[in-house]
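C-alpha cells help. Our protein:
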Amino acid sequence: MEIKERIGDVQGKAATLANMGVLSANNGDFQTAISYLQESLTILQHLKSPNAATVQSWLEQVQQLAG
C-alpha cells in the first residue's frame, strides 16, 4: 500500500483496500473490514469507477454481518 501511495496509484490503493476489507471480513474482523471498504468506496466514487458498485455491495454485506 505504501508503494501505491508513493507512486500515486490511487486506483491500485482502492483495490488493495477493498481486498484488505474482504480478508478482514473473512477473518471475522468486521469493524476493520468496514473501515477499509469505506475508504476504498470513497476513492472509487471520487474516480467515478464502475467498481464502486461492487465495493458498495461488499460493504453492505459486511455491515449486515456486523449487526
Remarks:
- The chain has one domain: 2-66.
